[in-house]
Write a structure and sequence with these properties.
heterodimer, A: mainly alpha, Arc Repressor Mutant, subunit A, 2 domains, about 75% helix, B: mainly alpha, 14 helices
């Protein structure tokens, strides 16, 4: 009999699964994350069938590993588990380029920059200084994306940059803003 | 971020402000960012029906897997019913053999004692050298087999940086070396998804469960290790064989 589990949080589902190992709860987590895991798998395996198989195998690992693992944030845990699995399978097949997993923590750190960007009022002056310190490409993309709320594609059309250049200008801009803000906070505090 | 939003984004069904909000979320979420990259690589112009079809294909794959795992029922064809009956007879015969005829299972504590050896620290330092930092002091205590002192230093290091896998691993091993398997399980089980020291963590966690007489959990991990190509593969197979009778009776 199917039950509606949509109202439960990820962590509720994990806890319920750990009580009696009923895979019904994993099924709900699968519904929530299989598309993301498929996208991630395709990025690394570059093959539709292999990516689809990887999704199944990653969730089999979830079923198995949740029995013994303490998980506080299911989505982050699943991301690391899936990425480790994919990197290992690339390594085994030894036919695809390995992208570094170290980027994960770096990316999470970069994400802190968004906190700065959303704290405009408190740190407006420092932030403006940090933004003016960026090169023109990064400054324009950050301004259009975060202040004028334009999607990537529109930023690309307005600037004439290609889509990848826009994304990397935003990423690099965020990294430089973070560095500038941290250095200034260290100097002042 | 739910799947409906993801599909609308890929099918270009969001308004420009909604697209920007979605992309800002992506900038905050590396999982979402990489997944969207992959989905766009697989098809640069998704339509909603194609996405729904992909979702259905993913669901049908896992439903088959989950149903198999959840119920173990075989309902499809008469052939499988006969096969199931034959397996049950086989299992009953095996259980009877294990209960009445098999040689007595070896004690799991003896197995633990035979296989537990503290891991050699990869950053070994010169014995007798001055310990300048907590990390150096921890390594020195660990290498001198003063595991109680090592625990003290590693606990401090771990409280300063709870996500350092290496320090948690050596804390776990030191706890095990001082006969504290429950604490070792607490420490090591947090890092089983880690790529770094993956096999070491699983190995010492399995040993900790064994020491703690939790044979089922130990078996799950040893079985996984027995399938993985690592330093611990052969030893895991040996342990599973040695504990075979014990594991069967624990089920």
């Amino acid at each position: 009999m199917s039950r509606n589990l949509a109202h439960l949080s990820d962590i509720d589902l994990v806890e319920l699964y750990k009580k009696d190992f009923n895979t019904l709860y994993i099924g709900e987590l699968y519904k929530r994350y299989s598309l993301l895991v498929y996208g991630l798998s395709y990025k690394y395996l570059k093959d539709e069938i292999a990516a689809q198989d990887a999704v199944t195998e990653i969730f089999e690992a979830v079923i198995f590993k949740l029995k013994t693992h303490e998980v506080s944030f299911f989505k982050s845990w699943l991301f690391i588990l899936a990425k480790n699995y994919l990197l290992r399978s690339i390594e085994k097949n030894n036919k695809l380029e390995i992208n570094s997993i170290e980027n994960i923590s770096e990316k999470f750190m970069e994400n802190d920059t968004d906190l700065y960007l959303n704290r405009q009022e408190e740190e407006s002056e420092l932030l403006q200084r940090a933004i003016s310190n960026l090169n023109e490409e990064q400054r324009t993309c950050i301004d259009l994306f975060y202040y004028q709320l334009k999607p990537y594609q529109e930023v690309a059309s307005m600037t004439g940059y290609d889509l990848n250049k826009v994304k990397s200008a935003i990423q690099n801009g965020k990294r430089n803003l973070k560095k500038f803000m941290e250095e200034n906070n260290r100097t002042n505090g | 971020m739910d799947n409906e939003q993801i599909k609308k984004y890929l099918a270009n069904e969001l308004s420009p402000p909604e697209r920007n909000a979605f992309e800002q979320e992506m900038e905050n979420d590396p999982f979402l960012m990489e997944a969207i990259e992959g989905l766009t690589m697989s098809n640069s112009s998704w339509t909603m029906p194609e996405l729904n079809q992909k979702e259905s294909a993913l669901y049908s794959d896992i439903n088959a897997q989950l149903n198999k795992k959840e119920t173990g029922k075989i309902v499809a064809m008469p052939f499988f019913r006969y096969a199931a009956a034959a397996s049950i007879i086989g299992i009953l015969a095996l259980v009877s053999w294990r209960l009445f005829l098999a040689p007595k299972a070896i004690d799991e504590q003896a197995v633990y004692a035979a296989y537990f050896h503290p891991l050699t620290h990869p950053d070994g330092i010169i014995r007798g050298a001055q310990s300048q930092t907590d990390e150096a002091a921890a390594i020195q205590a660990y290498e001198s087999e003063d595991y109680f002192a090592a625990i003290k230093y590693y606990e401090k290091l771990v409280s300063n940086n709870p996500v350092n896998v290496k320090n948690n691993l050596f804390l776990g091993v030191s706890l095990l070396a001082t006969n504290q398997p429950k604490k070792a399980i607490e420490v090591l089980s947090k890092f089983t998804a880690s790529e770094e020291y993956h096999a070491d963590i699983e190995w010492y966690l399995a040993l900790a469960y064994l020491k703690n007489k939790d044979l089922q959990q130990a078996q799950i991990i040893f079985t996984a290790l027995a399938k993985e190509d690592s330093y611990y593969q052969t030893q895991s197979v040996e342990i599973l064989n040695k504990l075979d009778g014990k594991l069967a009776s624990a089920k």
